[in-house]
Amino acid sequence: MSRIETLDQLRTHYKPVSSRAAQKVLARLDRHCMSFIGLSPFVMLATSSAAGALDVTPRGDHPGFVGIEDDTTLLLPDRPGNNRLDSLSNILEHPGVGLIFLIPGVDETLRVNGTAEIRVDADLRARFAVGGKLPTSVLRITVREAYLHCAKAFMRSGLWNPDVQVERSVLPTLGEMLRDQIGLAEAESQEAMLARFKEAMY
């Protein structure tokens, strides 16, 4: 097995980057990026600690839940989760973030790279209240790069194709998997878990 160790070695195994792919990176959000974010109910947030520990977390809400303050600033409310705070802890150590926005049924994605800070301003949190419930904090993200990503990965995976969707029953419930992984005495039922989640959505 041959190991690639240098950029020159790597480049010999791939075709040159196309001019379109090289030129498509924007330094700010244009109208197409803003429209994409406004339609997106789901984003993946990637962070890294100062020591290089990595984390990718899903964030979702109603379409357009990520606020657009201006063409270089995004606002991402932090809704209730498991309180591990992996992403937020990483941002305190290393502010660099990467985001991938998805729109159901659309094979293209939007990638945004930049830096983030954690804000707890009362007025900022109030902007993202749902049913009177405030996010605990809001990420203020300064955009450094933004670009649309082609559809190949989604075409290959058929992610939005209902014919290839997997029945949930193929896997054990989350409660059963956690029981096996961490030695719980019993498994929470899927119904009980979903009911608990619905009570704490916001």
The termini sit apart by: 50 Å
How many strands? Answer: 7
Widest sheet: strand order?
Answer: 2-1-5-6-7-4-3
Biggest beta sheet summary: 7 strands, antiparallel
The rough form would be described as globular
Q: Tell me the strand percentage band.
A: 25-35%
Could you say what the CATH architecture of the largest domain is?
A: Roll
Helices, by number, come to 8
* CATH fold-level name of the largest domain: Pnp Oxidase, Chain A
Which regions have little confidence, pLDDT < 50, spanning 5+ residues? none
Mean pLDDT over all positions: 95
Molecular structure report:
With 202 residues, this protein is α+β, with helices and mostly antiparallel strands. The protein has 2 domains: 16-159, Roll (Pnp Oxidase, Chain A), CATH 2.30.110; 166-202, no CATH class. Helix content is 29%, strand content 27%. The chain contains 8 helices and 7 strands; from the N terminus they run αααββββαββαβααα. A 7-stranded antiparallel beta sheet has the order 2-1-5-6-7-4-3, covered by helices on one side. Strand 1 and strand 2 form a beta hairpin. The chain is globular. The mean pLDDT is 95.
